[in-house]
Amino acid sequence: MKILVLHGINLNMFGKRDPAQYGTVTLAEIDQQLQALGQELGAQVECFQSNFEGALCERIHQAHADKIDAVVINAGAWTHYSYGIRDALAILKCPIIEVHMSNVHAREAFRHVSVFSEVVRGQICGFGVDSYLLGLRAAVRAIPSA
After folding, report:
1. CATH number assigned to the domain comprising residue 113
2. Mean pLDDT across the stretch 132-141?
3. How many domains are contained in the chain?
4. Is 22 annotated in the active site?
5. Annotated catalytic residue: which of 22, 105, 112, 132?
C-alpha cells in the first residue's frame, strides 16, 4: 500500500505558528509519527509539503500517474478556496481523507467550508496530530483491497 500525505500552505511552520491552536509539534515530528504508524499498518507513507499551490497540484497529478492507493491531505487555508487543488484531487481514483489539526468548525466562518468536501471520503479535524494519525488509519481502511 502506498499512501501519500500532503501538507499545504504554512504547515511547514507547525511548532512555531500559533501554538495555542496547533500545539508545539513540528511537521518533521508529524511525518515521523506517520511513517511509524504506516509501518505498523503495512503501508508505505510518503509525505510532501509545499507553500506553492501549483507544486501541490503537480504532486497530486504524479500520485495519479503512480497509482497511489490513498491520499491524506491537510491543505491548510487552501482547503477553503482552492478550486485548482480540488480539481486535481478529483482526478484521483483512490480514497482521499481530509485532515486538520484544529477544529475548523469552531474557528472563523470562512474555515467552516471545505471546497474539497465533494471529492474526499471524509474529514477529520480538531484532534491535533491525532487527526493525521486517524486520517492515515481511515485511508488504509478505505483502500478496497486493504
Report:
1. 3.40.50.9100
2. 98
3. 1
4. yes
5. 22
